[in-house]
Amino acid sequence: MNLLNKNDALSLAKLRDVLIRLEDTIIFALIERAQFALNDCTYQPGVYKYDNGSQGSFLEYFLHEMEKVHARVRRYTSPDEYPFTSPLPEPMLPTLDFPPTLHPNNINVNKDIMERYLQDIVPKICAPGDDLNYGSSATRDTECLQALSKRIHYGKFIAESKFMDPTQQKTYIKLIQNKDRDAIMELLTNRTVEAALLRRLRRKALIYGSDITETGEVVTKEEEVEGSTATTTSRKIQADVVVDLYERFVIPLTKEVEVEYLLRRLDGWQIPEDTEN
Ligand SMILES: C=C(O[C@@H]1C=C(C(=O)O)C=C[C@H]1O)C(=O)O
């Protein structure tokens, strides 16, 4: 998809294809991270001294330096004029800014992503302990966080696309004018799409998380299950963890981004006459 092409950028079907592809990115990023131990010291503030004077954890230092590079490069690649006719809140392209102060949203999405990732995800996918691979695990953490942030910030494009739907625009305008957050959330929610996503995600996590031999067999291991030995598939990541991550965290945050975006959608925008009540 070309985000600089307005038709592509606002086609709901194309945007949903991007979210589907990002499922693969996120699952593989988690699998990459899961090969290293927890390495808890990389998340503790003040363990190391940094040349930029930062007080944060090793991971925060790492993210900060990465984001500096991204910000510098973006300056040279942003088009002068973004081809949307209506304003999109900054930053226009989803990024993981750090330190996480950034968004014009009330919610501090990236701080939420970071907290939930560290509390809920890393301890479930990594072996407890320390394997001294601090640089490797911080690199993988960065990839996971950037993929999650990108996915969740796509809510802005999804929301714009839903708002531009001529059959829905009047209703959205009314709800936005009434600041009816709950009704906006209800209107933008598509439970069929969510349920299909969770089913697909479980299958992907089962398949991508398996090891395959050169003759195509799925690698198995012998395991003690309730007192007897059973043959189970050896998995690099538990499908439940991935599904739970989406159900409790990725989808709800994407929708919060959608609502926050829509609540600002009328600011500085002239409502077309034929849409006004
Ligand atoms: C992203 C969308 O909006 C909502 C959020 C979804 C998600 O985060 O996966 C899925 C369906 C909708 O409830 C969409 O409609 O595709």
Automatic annotation (TrEMBL):
List where in the cell it is found.
Cytoplasm
A single BP term in Gene Ontology = L-phenylalanine biosynthetic process
List GO terms (cellular component aspect).
cytoplasm; nucleus
Primary enzyme class: isomerase
- Domain Chorismate mutase stretches: 136-258
Q: Which UniProt keywords are listed?
A: Amino-acid biosynthesis, Aromatic amino acid biosynthesis, Cytoplasm, Isomerase, Phenylalanine biosynthesis, Tyrosine biosynthesis
Entry-linked NCBIfam families: CM_pl-yst
Q: What's the protein here called?
A: Chorismate mutase
- Source organism per UniProt: Linnemannia elongata AG-77
